[in-house]
Amino acid sequence: MELMRECSLKRPVDPLRIYAFGFPMSRPAARLAPALAPALFSTVAPISGIAPANNHAPAFKALPVLVLRGAADDENPITIDRRFFAVTQKAGGRRIGFRQYAGLAHQPLADIHPGTA
């Protein structure tokens, strides 16, 4: 969070375009940062990894969130994101989406990296 604030002060950062995005080890940060300061982010797109605890769901209700998950991920099972999706909706989150990739294990998604199929 401190690095983000510092970069925003020193560089021409559009505050309406700060995204929290991460794959496994950076995913908890992509989920925790908006929970700590939801007003700083314009959207959240976590991939695999571990979802935040249920008590963080209200922080995400006003944010656009797209959860991206491999259905065959046995390292971080998809059930944790299904839980987070449900509790965020129950907390009033209406801008949360859930994209499940059939057969995808614990790996990056090909369709989100430029130049890959």
Description:
There is one protein chain. This protein has 117 residues and is an alpha/beta fold. The protein has helices spanning 2-10, 27-36, 79-90; strands spanning 19-22, 43-46, 65-70, 96-101. Helix 3 (79-90) links the parallel strand 3 and strand 4.
What percent of the residues sit in helical stretches (DSSP H or I)?
25-40%
Please report which band the strand proportion falls in: under 5%, 5-15%, 15-25%, 25-35%, 35-45% or over 45%: 15-25%
Q: Separation of termini?
A: 33 Å
Walk across the major sheet and give the strand order: 1-2
- Annotation, overall tally of beta strands: 4
Low-confidence stretches: none
Count of alpha/pi helices: 3
User: Tell me, what's the shape?
Assistant: globular
Mean pLDDT across the residues is 82
Main beta sheet: 2 strands, parallel
Rg over CA atoms: 14 Å
- Supply the helix-strand structural class: alpha/beta
Helices and strands, in N-to-C order?
A: HEHEEHE
